[in-house]
Design goal:
Chain lengths: 266, 300
């Protein structure tokens, strides 16, 4: 099924080397991150975690190719990232990432058609397959404005997954959902991952979400974003919330984010 | 012991009283009865925009008829029925059909040219910074300039006839449509732009695939404004110099009949302009909206 040639599993899919990012506001040049390095391997659910202002979203945008680093570089399988492309599909937090003038089916099919990476006779089956996976086959002909927030996010996830990107980028995809829907969506994401084992780069500010969704967690400190720690969270799921390992990791991250270094930064 | 003191404390602090918990099983649908019911005919008619608008038009016509009958002066204000009779007469026996077709021909030529030019300008402004500056400056300069003020120049450049009128119509359509489309493009959210870019869309494919559909509500309202401006400019231009062009349009028809003090026919000409306006709005633009922005939930 996979179109990419098999690669050495010990080599990372995505590498960030000493990446410093800056963005311009009206009258300031703001440094979002300072010399951040990390490696994402195939099959990782890699989480960028940190408080607002730690540049985690900027890092994701840089990986997507929207924000060129001022220093360091980000590579995807050895090639330096030069701009946005369909090998790194992104799921955004906002619901308006779906195109309102296209039905659910067309929304998922559109990028497949645009890139021409898949033969056109394969597209229909591929779209149906992924709509099935997210349980929205019945809504294939509905337009986005008829869907609830959770359903829209599911369509966006299906759209990104159908492209079989080398790495799937998610920018707080569940932050705009209510708490109950968010829980369902996290479980669904894990189920989809069990199914296809994609590589995920996930941004969140919730420690709990990071522990449940992630297998590797990169903790960032704010103003400007710097790497504070990289932790292993393999095998933690919903049922582990409250378990000694879960609580220990949670307190460890909390003390990193709200401990001395956080206060010094102010 | 502590529970008792807690309760006493609560009573003293005037807290809400403690209440027992309970759980219930939801009723089955059968016992609740009807949960969906069709609206009555009157309610459904009230929901129908076309019906409401027809009522409004009838009301306006009745008002006109009543006032004109009280005034009883055909030279100043003919009644609605006289105007309709004059309109019928001009359509059936007079030159109104020919005049209307001529006006529509000029109008559509100018309108299409204006819209195409606006599209080119806005596409340029969407893809380059220079184009963006150019469009902003040009619209700021020319949008406030009344098309009629350009007519003397147009006559000098293009002579009497269709060319000059098309020129001023293009001027009146171009800036209104460009301004609205540009505003529409600028209001397309960053998320949607980034989504389009991750699909690998660039240049014209990006403009047609993402920007134009996303900005369609503004584009349609720009097209509507442009259409109205084109009409106004056309009629005004014909009133000003239609006298000298042999094959005049609707404006010339109005001007001619005013000179002959045939007020019912003046009103018939105006009514024709209104009817065409209503028809275009109701048939063309409304259909366009129903099949696009309304269907997509981008506009109510």
């Amino acid at each position: 099924m996979t179109t990419a040639p098999p690669r050495d599993a010990s080599l990372p899919v995505l590498t960030a080397d000493d990446v410093s990012l800056q963005y311009r506001t009206r009258d300031h040049l703001v440094t979002a991150t300072w010399r951040v390095s990390f490696k994402v391997h195939a099959g990782d659910r890699f989480v960028l975690l940190g408080p607002s202002g730690c540049g985690k979203s900027s890092l994701l945008k840089a990986a997507a190719g929207f924000l060129p680093p001022v220093e360091g570089r980000i590579r995807l399988g050895g090639r330096e990232i030069k701009g946005p492309g369909p090998d790194r599909m992104m799921v955004f937090q906002e619901f308006d990432q779906l195109l309102p003038w296209k039905s659910v089916f067309e929304n998922v099919a559109y990028p497949l058609k645009c890139t021409g990476r898949f033969p056109s006779r394969e597209i229909e089956g591929r779209v149906r397959g992924y709509l099935d996976k997210i349980g929205l086959s019945r809504f294939a002909d509905a337009y986005p404005h008829m869907l609830s927030g959770g359903m829209k996010q599911r369509v966006a996830i299906a759209r990104a997954m159908a492209m079989e990107p080398e790495v799937l980028l998610m920018d707080e995809p569940f932050a705009a959902l209510d708490a109950l829907t968010r829980r369902t969506m996290q479980a669904e994401l894990l189920r989809l991952w069990d199914d296809t084992r994609f590589t995920l780069l996930f941004v969140t500010h919730s420690i709990e979400e990071a522990l449940i969704v992630g297998t590797r967690i990169l903790v960032l400190s704010p103003h400007p974003g710097q790497v504070r720690a990289e932790l292993d969270a393999t095998g933690l799921g919903f049922e582990d919330a409250g378990s000694p390992r879960f609580v220990e990791l949670q307190t460890r991250i909390e003390s990193m984010l709200f401990g001395h270094s956080a206060e010094e930064a102010h | 012991m502590s529970a008792v003191t807690e309760m006493l404390d609560a009573a003293r602090r005037n807290d809400p009283p403690p209440r027992p918990d309970y759980e219930r099983v939801p009723e089955t649908l059968g016992t609740i009865g009807e949960i969906q019911r069709q609206l009555t005919l009157a309610e459904r008619l009230g929901q129908n925009a076309f019906f409401r608008r027809m009522l409004l038009l009838l009301g306006l016509a009745a008002l006109w008829q009543g006032y004109a009958m009280v005034l009883d002066n055909e030279l100043m204000l003919p009644t609605f029925t006289t105007t309709v009779a004059a309109l019928w007469d001009a359509l059936a026996h007079g030159s109104l059909v020919e005049r209307t077709l001529y006006s529509l021909q000029v109008l559509i030529t100018g309108y299409v040219l204006g819209v195409v030019l606006a599209g080119l300008l806005v596409s340029l402004s969407a893809s380059t910074r220079f184009g963006n500056d150019l469009l902003s400056t040009l619209t700021a300069m020319f949008n406030p300039l009344p098309a009629i003020a350009l007519l003397p120049l147009a006559l000098l450049w293009f002579g009497l006839g269709m060319g000059s009128i098309v020129f001023v119509i293009v001027h009146s359509v171009l800036w209104a449509v460009a301004l609205n489309t540009h505003a529409g493009f600028q209001s397309v959210s960053d998320t949607m732009r980034m989504a389009g870019q991750t699909f690998g869309l660039k240049g014209l494919r990006y403009i047609f695939g993402i920007l134009i559909p996303a900005a369609l509500p503004s584009i349609v309202s720009g097209l509507k404004i442009g259409w109205a401006f084109a009409w106004r400019t056309l009629i005004a231009a014909e009133l000003v110099f239609g006298a000298s062009s042999r094959s005049g349009g609707l404006g010339w028809f109005i001007f001619e009949n005013r000179n002959a003090l045939e007020t019912p026919y003046v009103f018939a000409g105006l009514l024709m302009v209104i009817l065409i306006g209503l028809a275009i709005e109701g048939l063309v633009f409304r259909t366009l909206e129903n099949h696009t922005v309304r269907k997509w939930g981008m506009q109510r």
